[in-house]
Amino acid sequence: MTAVLEVANLRKRFGGVAAVDGVSFEVREGEILGIIGPNGSGKSTLFNCILGQLPPSEGEVRLDGRVTTRMRPCDLNRLGVSRTFQLLQIFPKLSVRDNLILAAQEHQGTMLSRLFGRRDAGLTEAADQMVAFFKLDHLADELAGGLSYGQQKLLDAAMAFMSGPRLVLLDEPAGGVNLTMLANLKDRLKAFNKERGATFVVIEHNMEFVMSLCSRVLVLAEGKVLAEGLPAELRANPAVIEAYLGR
Amino acid sequence: MTAKGRNFLGLLGLAVAVAFLIFAPLSFHRYGIYILSQWAVMTIAAIGLNLTLGYAGQVSLAQGAFVGIGAYSAAILTTHGWPLIAAIVLALALCFAIGWLLGYPALRVQHHYLAFVTLAFSTLAFLVFRNELWLTGGTEGIDSVPRPSIFGLSTTSHLRYYYFCLFVLALVALAVLGLVRSPWGRAFVALRENPIRAMSLGVDTRRYVLMAFAIGSALGGLSGALYAPLVGLVEPPAFALTLSFNLLMMVIVGGSGYFVGPFVGAMTAVLLPEWLRFLESYYLILYALLVMALLIYSPTGLVGIIDRFLVHRRTKAASAARAALGASIEAKAP
Questions:
Q1: B328 in a domain, yes or no?
Q2: Number of domains in chain B
Q3: Residue B279 lies in a domain
Q4: Among A11, B2, B14, B142, which is most exposed with the fewest C-beta within 10 angstroms?
Q5: How many A×B Cβ pairs under 8 Å?
Q6: Shortest Cα–Cα distance, B318 to chain A (Å)
Q7: Residue at B295 is within a domain
């Protein structure tokens, strides 16, 4: 399998503190890579450096072999990279359907053609399919701000998939979601991975969620890669147990 | 109320408003028509500011300066024999270009910092209007700005010029309605609500910020180009910071980010002081108190009150439907 994402010796310093300290890894096509680690281990900073939200101090990021270091998030998104954030990021004053249309409209035509083209940019059908896929179809016309937290989390994830990305980076998708919703979310992510061949990188603290979803796991501690391997291997790794999992 | 019912009520309200704006001035005195013309002209500037601030979330205290640039462009060109239409096109292009450039600081700074950058631009424009005698006539300004002939029809009378302004306002309203209902409108709202998330979804926030400034400023320029022949005189104090604050108030009081907001806000700012004149020297005090009371009661402005009511009803109906659905599922459960 070819590598969709390659991260080489990535560093991010804030003053004297190295939040990400020489991290290297790759993500192969169609896999679900989990990233775990204690709070402050540099997981979200790593995401932000990969996705152009923060400029890395050193290192290189490649997408499908093309160097994308310091590329703007909107340009990366148009190359097929999508993400969710640690904190919920939806547009509460737009309807659920409009949130989804917004998530893909910039992939339709040019800026000028979008000004004079259809209001929905031809995406209503795709948005309705997506709300149905995430089992939110009865809420399509509701304002996103009126949804429950779990439903908003599902919408947040659905928005990341709306443009048909090749690579999706999910930052703590299970945070604050109840067990029923969590099962639904995991089920949807697995289905998306299987049916559409999307590649995922998932940051998560919920170990049951990570172990049952991810095919490979990377452990970060103090900005460095502590270990990498199959979920079962890492469960038995003494260094990982010491730094993160606990006895 | 169903969506159909809401649409019908909206169309009915629009028809009544349009009929009033067309027929009521026939029975108005000169001053009444002049005030209504001023409302139409200022509404155009407020629509522009609403696009920049209300939809795209970029604070601007420079809209008055763009009205000034448009007014001086029209005054200079028409007093040199140019037709007003050509002056309008030039004012639009000039303000679009300057607005685009003014958008660049917004890529670096936001909120009150951006407000100060635009405020500085406003002061700069005022100084140019006042000091560049060779171009603007200095403190005396430019007088005898002619009113245009449109397709051979003179607009010298107040009523005809009012209809011309109303026609331009209608064109602007339709164009902006098309814009805010297009994917651009959605992108502007995303920019206002959460620019980081918007960017992660492929929205080129840099371009949209610049476009929001450029289009909003161009509408300010258009408003100014109509203002000059309306008043017949352009002079610096008319485009000082007070005008920018006044336009800001129109947007906020009407309802920032609502399409109808600037229409209602400009009506409040232009017409309400006139209606309160019977209070003589107290009218501006009462006007200020009314505006303060309104914003305390409804920070989302006058249109926001109606919107809150509609959202409340919609949420209530949706909750009731969800509860009914839950009850029916429970009833069916073994």
A1: no
A2: 1
A3: no
A4: B2
A5: 92
A6: 8
A7: no
